[in-house]
Design goal:
Elements lengths: L67 E5 L2 E4 H23 L5 H23 L11 H4 L16 H19 L3 H19 L1 H6 L44 H22 L8 H21 L13 H20 L10
Antiparallel strand pairs: 1-2
Helix pairs in contact: 1-2, 1-5, 2-4, 5-7, 5-8, 7-8, 8-9
């Protein structure tokens, strides 16, 4: 039986929980909807929408596999959780340094971490719950509408980055109100770190063999995917090993997005310093939404055969949300540069 592909695979073992904030995935409106049941092998009958996801087999220390980094008292600690936790900590550290650079209390960032993380997980989870992934797994709303209690089961669940960003933004707002700190200034300090955290966290998809695209057609570029982690899309059945043999190389979609986010982090940090006298509160955050929206759109259009789409249009939902993100970021910058609203240099 195919093993479930689980974004939150290590969530039950301590260090994984903080990592969830940066899942598109971090799943995801074309989100990274891992943590859903794996596609059925060719010839098998797909499970109905009301059937439970395939459970993970009992953990066996003798066959712990490449996903497990090490054990603590017999409990597995997964690479996915370690990588995403590292991304979260890196993001918070960058936010603290940005606050300090602007002569504010860096502890605001550390104090915000739990609130932002918690609400980010809630938003990311709800995004996944109401999604309809196109990978033939009957996950998303088709399953949770019949099994509402499973919404709370993060162990078998997925997370969506756009929902995580919305929930995290609410956490930033709550933190700003509590600290009596300008919201958009705090957002400017946090968003570069978010881009870095996403760049790091995407490598958790590599450990889980998920978030990959179609075959590259190359003998050297791309990644191979084990048969149990293959997906079945509307157009292709990658579980068919006669058409897509074990040595088939697939586009590393997670890698493309990781590099885009890393470049975005560098760009935002450069702009925040080089043009500091000309920036207004909200400019850096607005640029983040523009940059991320553009990057997410092209990766979804070109390298996501299993994307959640808008009805029968074939348009990935994440592309639509990405366009909204770009327009939102543009609106934030324009709004704060209206002469009557300028707040001066920082």
């Amino acid at each position: 039986m195919a093993r479930a592909v689980t974004q939150t695979e290590g969530l039950g073992w301590g260090c994984v929980a903080p990592s969830a904030l940066f899942r598109r995935n971090m799943s995801a409106a074309g989100a990274v909807h891992r943590g859903r049941p794996a596609a059925s092998p060719k010839g098998a009958v797909a499970s109905p929408a009301h059937a439970p996801p395939h459970p993970d087999p009992p953990y066996n220390p003798q066959t712990m596999g490449p996903r497990v980094a090490f054990e603590i008292f017999g409990f597995p600690v997964y690479w996915y959780g370690i990588i995403l936790t590292s991304g979260m900590l890196a993001a918070t550290w960058v936010a603290a340094r940005e606050l300090e650079r602007r002569e504010h209390d860096p502890n605001i960032a550390w104090n915000a971490m739990i609130t932002v993380l918690g609400l980010g997980i809630v938003g990311a989870r709800l995004y996944h719950v109401f999604s309809s992934p196109g990978d033939g797994t009957n996950s998303g709303w088709a399953y949770y509408s019949q099994n509402p209690l499973q919404i709370l089961n993060l162990r078998n669940g997925g997370l969506g980055i756009f929902g995580g960003l919305l929930g995290g933004a609410l956490g930033v707002l709550i933190t700003a109100v509590r600290a009596k700190f300008p919201f958009w200034r705090l957002a400017d300090c946090i968003t570069p770190g978010v881009a870095l955290g996403q760049a790091i966290g995407r490598w958790g998809n590599f450990a889980n063999q998920e978030l990959y695209g179609g075959p590259t057609g190359s003998s050297w570029w791309g990644i191979t995917i084990s048969a149990e982690h293959r997906i079945r899309t509307r157009a292709f059945d990658f579980t068919d090993l006669t058409k897509f043999p074990p040595d088939t190389r697939f586009h590393p979609t997670f890698f493309y997005e990781s590099m885009w986010n890393l470049a975005g982090f560098a760009l935002l940090m450069f702009i925040a310093r080089r043009y500091a006298p000309r920036l207004r509160d909200g400019d850096v955050a607005g640029l983040y939404f523009i940059w991320y929206g553009i990057g997410r759109a092209w990766t979804e259009l070109l390298f996501r055969p299993d994307a959640w789409t808008v009805g029968a249009s074939g348009l990935p939902t994440a592309v639509l949300v990405s366009v909204i993100a770009v327009l939102f970021g543009t609106g934030v910058i324009v709004f704060h540069h209206i002469p009557a609203r300028r707040v001066g240099s920082r």
